[in-house]
Amino acid sequence: MADCVEDSDEESRISYGDYIVLKRGEVFKSVQVENKKKVIFEKQWFFLDNAVGQLYGTIFEIVAGGSLRVKMVKRAGSSLNNDDSKEAGQDNRHIMDDGRSQKLTRDDIETLKEQGLKGQEIVQQLIDNSTTFKDKTEFAQQKYIKKKKKKYESDITFLKPSTRLLAMMYHGREPGKICHLRYDTLAQMLTLGNIHASSKIIVFETCAGLVLGSVMERMGGYGSVIQVYPGGGPTRAGMESFGFPSSFHDTLHDFPMCKVNALLAGTLDLSEKDTDSRTDGSRDGRLDSSRETSGVFQEGNTEPQRMEVSIDPEEEVKRAEREKLREQRAQEKKVKMEERRKKLTSASALLQGQDADGLVIASRFHPCPVLMRLLKFVAPSRPFVVYCQYREPLIECYTKLREQCGTINLRLTDSWLRHYQVLPNRTHPLLLMSGGGGYLLSGITVAKSVTQQKSEEPAAKRLKLDVSTPSCESST
């Protein structure tokens, strides 16, 4: 039991090569711990070497020289919250914000910084020199302290990466990279997609790898994840920020979107070679041959005396080095092509079974053609979920799915998130918040019956019988 405790304690400590999330107030940043690495965060620079060996969740203070020092949690504003909050007013209706309530000027604050005062001490000086602090309500005092702490204290918390932290980081810093995907919408996607361990999930996303990393974290390193990517290669910057171990990467496979039609038609050729590398090699060969011939014949001069010119030994050595370098590059290309072929083979083998346990789509492209293609690889009675920032593309997907009769329980939802400030007698929603979190289309796949498959075929036309008047013979 003691060994298990020690192992878990070692896993929760920061070490070189780990990814961490820096937090200061409501601002986050993901970095990798490296030796003597200079990090700039919120207009301050520091080194991460002193954080190695410390537990995740430790609060550090930036000192002179950019070094970090562990800050005791006991001193985290205890004197400010207890001593100064005892004397408070009943309301703020008589307080006038005329800019004269603070006696300290900006030059005085800079002088305090030069004297070596810490952020907490500067905040205490601001409280002592404020003429309206004691007249404010208890809630207003706490709000004032929190605001000044955020401005003058240099405390940074080191956290372990997670889906929630990275989603908040991307949405707060660069929401365009993740298609404005909010963290509550991402949580709904993982729930509606039924992401769990030992399952086979297909992911198509252009959200910097955030959705892919969230799926892998939920699966816990068990099962298979097939990333279908557009363009020349997959994007996994957000997934790498999670800092997964190597066992997680063994469950990840990638397959290009441009070869999905060939895989569905059964015409995918896994033995084909890279045409770009062949053209590059032939072009290099033509260039080398042209260089050699240019040394013998120049500007159409075909005099035989050029052939008798002696070759410099240094040029011979340089040419041998070029040949060796060319062969080395060709060997590296061959190895990369073989690895790419093996990855493509393994990914196609997983998709050919058409027994995936789920499908997750979140991209900046139109989701309708992508959904119709990738839905064929999902087994019956399995969930799928599609995210889009706008509603109209998902309405088109909804109509197409209803026409094909291969899905049930289709739902188009709009996620709504509202932050509430919960305090005694001061509970109300925040004024500034996100307007919209995008739209989700979810459903469950079903197997088509024989009658449904026959109904899709056009019915044969019936011959119309001409109803003519009875003849004389028939009448008689």
Describe what this molecule looks like in 3D.
- This protein is an alpha/beta fold and 476 residues long.
- The chain is 40% helix and 17% strand.
- It contains 17 helices and 16 strands.
- It has helices at residues 2-11, 78-83, 106-114, 119-128, 138-152, 163-173, 183-192, 210-219, 237-240, 246-250, 260-265, 275-296, 313-352, 367-374, 392-404, 450-456, 472-475, and strands at residues 19-24, 27-32, 38-41, 44-47, 59-62, 68-70, 155-159, 199-205, 223-229, 252-256, 358-362, 383-388, 407-414, 420-421, 428-429, 439-445.
- Strands 10-9-8-11-12-16-13 form a seven-stranded mixed beta sheet, sandwiched between helices. The protein has a five-stranded antiparallel beta sheet with strand order 2-1-7-5-6, with helices on one face. The chain has a two-stranded antiparallel sheet with strand order 3-4.
- Strand 14 and strand 15 (428-429) form a beta hairpin.
- The longest helix is centred in the last third of the chain and has 40 residues, at 313-352.
- The chain is flat and about 90 Å long.
